[in-house]
Amino acid sequence: MVGECDMQGLSLDDTAAYYAPAADEVLTYTEPTPGYCCPLSANIYGIEFESFRIRDYETGQCLFEVSKDPEAPPIDLNNLPPEMEDQVRCISYDFGAEFLDLKTVGTTLQFAVGPNEVPNFRMIERHYFRNHLIKSFDFNFGFCIPNSVNTWEAIYDLPELDPELKQQLIDFPWETQSDSFYYVGETMIMHNKAKYAYTLPP
Amino acid sequence: MGLLTILKKVKQKEHEMRLLMLGLDNAGKTTVVKKFNGEDIDLISPTLGFNIKTLEYSGFKLNIWDVGGQTSLRSYWRNYFESTDGLIWVVDSSDRARLLDCKAELQQLLQQERLAGASLLVFANKQDIDGALTAEEIRDTLELGSIERRHWKIVSCSAFTGAGLVDGIDWMVKDIASRIFMFD
After folding, report:
1. How far is the C-alpha of B64 from the C-alpha of B163, rounded, in Å?
2. What's the predicted TM-score (pTM) here?
3. Measured distance CA(B10)–CA(A162) in Å, rounded
4. A97-127 as b/e, with b when 16 or more CB fall inside 10 Å?
5. B111 catalytic residue (yes or no)
6. Distance from CA of B55 to the nearest CA of A (A)
7. What are the pLDDT digits (tens) for B21-32?
């Protein structure tokens, strides 16, 4: 299940009001940021996420897939009403409780790049339950070719969760959250959020 | 303590390896990586950028970079040389017509200073196709025998059946490990 997050009141439309922390700083975060750290207009490279997919590495089975609707009309990001911003920048996933029992997963991100080359693209993604850091990714894509379509699959063992924490993740849906920060060089160009639940019956 | 020692220690700490997979378009690079990772290989379209796989293998964290091989993309290959520990050159063994093109591109890569420290694995791919050249024939045509000061190996494989893939990657990982993580 994919839906929109309810984060009304957090959006900011005044560029001056954003505080974009450096990569070293976000790597110390242990809880979600209260709002977005950069405006949508910071994405001057026209990077677009096309799909995200999770598979069970043991069985090869696709567990989850979401892709951009190619038929959807383009959104004018410069005239986006603040209440719409969450719909564009935050996504909610319900993976079901059995997800937490998986051993190894592969997560594949596909993104397209605009007409200019991207010199040094880096993603930092922090996953939290409340104010507890569960998992952190820090990946340097480096150079991206103009007009390219690229994928990155990270295959990894899910962190072993303390049974008590695992039960809490199930009992408190949407309190597991993540921040994805994207940098080109030292400059933050995108910041998206996600919320997770593990409640759907198998 | 020299700089080389420091570099080795940094790498050693993370046990990371960067493998760069290149070759002409339609050599089967993406199919090699997908098959190696147990993915469906039925629908693979030309790579118009890169496909990266990050995985654990034999206690190492591998980052495999598969970059598109179309002529228009080859000028961008140099952007991916930095920090490469191993170069995997994939050859379509059934594409006799472009074997000299294949040789020329490989020779250019081997002259690159930033790839000077990389081990070379050549995959003689598509061995499942009738009339494919053998690994020995490809070794001779590509003149691999004249390579100096570089660890290299050629392995026959079929990304379609999966034959040979583990042998090749295994050699590469062990070779890099013996060069870089020698203090373990």
Report:
1. 19
2. 0.90
3. 31
4. bebeebeebbbbbbbbbbeeebeebbbbbbb
5. no
6. 5
7. 999 999 999 999
Q: What is the mean pLDDT of residues A138-143?
A: 96
pLDDT of A71-94, one tens digit each? Answer: 777 666 667 777 788 888 999 999
Whether A128 contacts A134, CB under 8 Å: yes
CB pairs < 8 Å spanning A and B: 58
Show the DSSP H helices in B46-181 as ranges.
71-74, 99-110, 135-141, 165-180
Choose among A88, A80, A75, A96: nearest CA to A199: A96
Pick from B14, B36, B39 the residue to mutate for testing the A interface (most A CBs within 10 Å).
B39
ipTM: 0.90
Whether residue B23 is annotated as binding a ligand: the answer is: yes
With contact defined as beta carbons under 8 Å apart, do A193 and A179 qualify?
Answer: yes
CA quadruple B103, B45, A149, B18: dihedral sign:
negative
Q: Establish whether B107 is an annotated binding residue.
A: no
Between positions 164 and 183 of B, the ones with CB within 8 A of A are: none
B30 is in an annotated binding site: yes
List the single best residue of A58, A109, A144, A155 to mutate versus B (max B Cβ within 10 A).
Answer: A155
Closest CA to B122 of B134, B130, B112: B134
Chain A: closest CA distance from residue B129 (Å): 27
- Spatial distance between the Cα atoms of B32 and B89, rounded to a whole number of angstroms: 11
